[in-house]
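Hey,
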Amino acid sequence: MTRNIEAGGLILRLVVGLTFFIHGVAKFQGGIENIAGWFGTLGLPGFLAYIVASIELVGGIALILGLGTRIVSALFIVIMLVAIFTAKLSLGFLGNGQMAGYELDILLMAMSAYLLLNGSTMYSFDSLLSKKSQNKEIPI
């Protein structure tokens, strides 16, 4: 049973990591200056676009590798909460026919919450580093 739970955590970690990574890449490829301007129209400082895109890009890679899973997941939750309350809430759950609603944001937030609460050690650098630190002998 534990192996199945870990496999499920691995799947979530990979999917969430890949999704945020692709969103981060898209922000930089599409012109981060445009995203910064859009943040301004939402009442957010434009420099936050650089921070969000960087967290998505680097955090996505880290999550795929299983490095800092809980910390990265917490950052993703914050990003999703801000996205919902600044950009998506007025569109409704399913959107308005022209723009998507916040259904994907809630899913990504829920998956990130699972990873924050439970972690994901299967095939992760976190577990590899943890095993190395446990194997070190303490001199007496």
